[in-house]
Amino acid sequence: MTTSTTELREINVKIARAYDQVPYDPVIVPEIDAARVLGIAALYGAGPQTGSYDVLDLGCGTGVQLARVAPHNGGGRLVGTDLSQSACTFASERCAALGARARIVCSDFLDLDPAALGQFDLIYHVGVLYITPPEVQRRLLTLVAACLKPGGVAVLSYYYGTHALLLAGLRQTLRLAVPRDIPADEQVGRARAVLRDMARSLAQQGGERAMLSVLQHAGARADSIFYHELLGEHFHALSTAGLEDALGAHGVHFLNWVWPGPQGRPATARDRAFLADTLDYSGGGYHYTVFAKTDSARGPSPRENVLWESRLVREGRSVPAVFRDPSSGFSVNANVVTTAALEMLADGPRGWDTLAPAVAKDMSARIPPVTDALETLDEELLLLWQYGLLAPLWRR
Ligand SMILES: C[S@@+](CC[C@H](N)C(=O)[O-])C[C@H]1O[C@@H](n2cnc3c(N)ncnc32)[C@H](O)[C@@H]1O
Q1: What is the pLDDT of residues 302-325, one digit of tens each?
Q2: 5-161+237-293 CATH choice from 3.40.50.10490, 3.40.50.150, 3.40.50.2000, 3.90.1150.10
Q3: Cα–ligand 1 centroid distance for 44 (angstroms)
Q4: Residue 19 CA, closest ligand 1 atom number
Q5: How far, in Å, is the centroid of ligand 1 from the Cα of 42?
Q6: Does pTM surpass 0.85?
Q7: Angle at 22 between CA 20 and CA 27, to 5 degrees
C-alpha cells in the first residue's frame, strides 16, 4: 500500500505533535560523543581533516547533542532540524549562546533542501529513523548522503535483531489494544496492563523465551520512550545490511558499531554489515552505528588522529601478561609487544605517534630484539578495540 504525500505529511505532523505532548527524555550516551565517534572513523580513514568541523543533527529534538558537541567542534557550524515545535523552541534556547554558528530549522524532513543545508563533517541522526514511515526513511537516507562531505561521518541509531523484530510486532498489538483518544499517560497505563497480561499468559503456556524477554524489556522502558516507541505511529526494526545497501548506493558505508562487537576485521563494509546482523540474531538491540562517505581523493590515514584510551589493568607479573577490564571483568593474555603498549597506556591516553616509537625502542632493546613490533601492535590494538577494551579518541 502506498501512502499519498498528503497522508504522509499528516502522519509526520502526528508524530511531531506526539513529541510536543510527551517530550522525549534525551539519553546521554558518552560513546557517541564526537571524540569517540571520530576516533572510530579515523581507524577506517574517515573523518574531518581539520580541528574545525561542521555538525548537522537531523531530528535534533531539544538540541542536547548539538550542545554536547559545541565545545569541541572548533567553532564550526551546528545545524539542528526537527518538526516538533516545542523541541525546536527548547533547542533554539539551548543553542542561543552559541550565536550565529548554531541554527535550528523547524521543518518536516520531507521539506529539507540539502543544497540549502549544505554539507557537514559529522551528522547525528539518533532516535529517529525507526519511528518514521518507510517513505520518510528513504528520504532521510538520501539527505544523510547528500549532506555529508567526502570523508564525513554519520552516527545513526536503530534497533535490529530478534528482539527488535518481535518488538515491532508487539507494538502493532498494543496499538490495537489501546484507544488512541485518551490522554497519553492513560494509554501508557493501559498498554502496560496488556503487557503484564501477555507476560502472565505466555509464562503459563511455557511460551517462547525470547518473547518473554521482549515483554520484560518493553515494560522496563521509561513512560515517554514507551509511548513513542510502543504506541507511536511507526516502529521498524532496521538491519545494518539494509542500511549499508541503501546508503552504499550513495557512497556512504558502514564502519562499525560504537560499541564494538567481537567481529574480527572483515574488510568490506558489506561483510561487516552482514556480520553485525548475524550477531543481532542472537538477541540484538539498540545500536549506535558509524557510517562514512567515501573520499576517493584521500588515502587511508587511520592512526595519527587517534588517541588510545585503555580500560585494562595488569594483573600480577605473570608472563605472558594478563590484563583485565575491571568494569566488565574481561581479561586478555597479552604478547610482549602489546604488554609494553598497555603498560604505557596505563598512564593515560596516547597517540600512535608517541606510542609506536616508544614501543619500537623498547622492543629493539630486547635480547633478541623483537623486529615486527609495530605490525603486530597495530593489529593487536585494533583487536582490543573490537573487544571493547580500548577506546579510540579523536584528538584534534
Ligand atoms: C526520539 S526523538 C530524538 C531526538 C534527538 N535526536 C535525541 O536523541 O534526543 C525523535 C525526533 O524526531 C522528530 N521527527 C519525527 N519525524 C519527523 C519529521 N518527519 N520531520 C522532522 N522531525 C521529525 C520528532 O519531532 C522528535 O523530536
Answers
A1: 678 899 999 899 999 999 999 999
A2: 3.40.50.150
A3: 29
A4: 25
A5: 28
A6: yes
A7: 105
